[in-house]
């Protein structure tokens, strides 16, 4: 099937579609944010401040893992001395608002994907448009998996490392609430977006910007970058770095497979049309 003639829509029509996409997306985020605003006790006490609790599930996991590898209790966390403070008059209200918006963005992500799909669907073949449900489901699962990965792995490892890092005994850690929340939000959202790598590679391959050969060529450089990032955000031990690196490299390898599959299908389609 031929693509829909994009010439049927003027530049202003495209801008109008984009404007309504942004309006509907903003309304969805604000609606979810309003709901999250009234669950502040649970969001802050149970979720956001969870990684600063030594009883957090991740710390128990690492403790048991270290003992299984014969490392005694080298990865066990018995105490996290991380007092949180607010130094601005409207600081807590501002954190409450922006955290609610962040939660609203995460919760409404599937709807945002649906809006993006509707916007790009006119440029797709008719037989490609039927994959809308698969695109939404897979992209949402990848995003939420990345959010959980960031929350349960990267965030607690970062909190534990920075809370215990001491450059001088003369310095006491008393972390500002905005700094702490920023670390948690960055860890979770960045991981969620990073886990969209296979989807991004799929579309980049479709438009010819990426090839499987390109991804294979720069695989070793990607591994070095990931190892450096893992060393920065995790405690300075090999086990933690490996645990963070493995799923990210697995995503990269899956992206290579997806890129190769897309290229193969495009070549086959081109041969059949000749």
From TrEMBL:
Q: Which InterPro entries match?
A: TatC
Q: Indicate where this protein is primarily found.
A: membrane
Membrane topology, as annotated, equals: Multi-pass membrane protein
* Localization in the cell: Cell membrane; Membrane
Keyword annotations = Cell membrane, Membrane, Protein transport, Translocation, Transmembrane, Transmembrane helix, Transport
Where does the chain cross the membrane? 21-44, 95-114, 134-154, 189-209, 221-236, 242-263
Question: A Pfam family in this protein?
Answer: TatC
Q: Which family does it belong to?
A: Belongs to the TatC family.
Q: What does this protein do?
A: Part of the twin-arginine translocation (Tat) system that transports large folded proteins containing a characteristic twin-arginine motif in their signal peptide across membranes.
Which NCBIfam families does this one have?
A: tatC (TIGR00945)
Q: How does it assemble?
A: Forms a complex with TatA.
Instruction: Tell me what this protein is called.
Output: Sec-independent protein translocase protein TatC
Organism, as annotated: Flavobacterium jejuense
């Amino acid at each position: 099937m031929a693509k829909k003639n994009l010439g049927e829509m003027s530049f202003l029509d495209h801008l109008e579609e984009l404007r309504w996409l942004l309006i509907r997306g903003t309304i969805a985020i604000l609606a979810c944010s309003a709901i999250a605003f009234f669950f502040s006790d649970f969001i802050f006490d149970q979720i956001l401040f969870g990684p600063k609790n030594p009883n957090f599930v991740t710390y128990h996991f690492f403790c048991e893992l270290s003992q299984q590898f014969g490392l005694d209790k080298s990865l066990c966390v018995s105490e996290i001395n991380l007092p949180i403070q607010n130094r601005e008059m409207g600081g807590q209200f501002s954190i409450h608002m922006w955290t609610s918006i962040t939660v609203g963005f995460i919760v409404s992500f599937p709807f945002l994907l649906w809006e993006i799909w509707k916007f790009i669907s006119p440029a797709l073949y008719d037989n490609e448009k039927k994959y809308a449900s698969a695109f939404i489901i897979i992209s949402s699962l990848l995003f939420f998996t990345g959010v959980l990965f960031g929350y349960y792995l990267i965030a607690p490892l970062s909190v534990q490392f920075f809370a215990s890092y001491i450059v001088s005994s003369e310095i006491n850690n008393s972390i500002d609430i905005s700094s702490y929340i920023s670390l948690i939000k960055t860890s979770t959202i960045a991981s969620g977006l990073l886990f969209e790598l296979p989807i991004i590679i799929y579309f980049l391959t479709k438009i010819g910007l990426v090839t499987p050969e390109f991804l294979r060529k720069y695989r070793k450089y990607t591994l070095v970058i990931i190892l450096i990032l893992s060393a920065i955000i995790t405690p300075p031990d090999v086990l933690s770095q490996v645990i963070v690196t493995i799923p990210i490299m697995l995503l990269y390898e899956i992206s290579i497979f997806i890129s190769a599959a897309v290229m193969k299908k495009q070549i086959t389609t081109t041969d059949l049309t000749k």
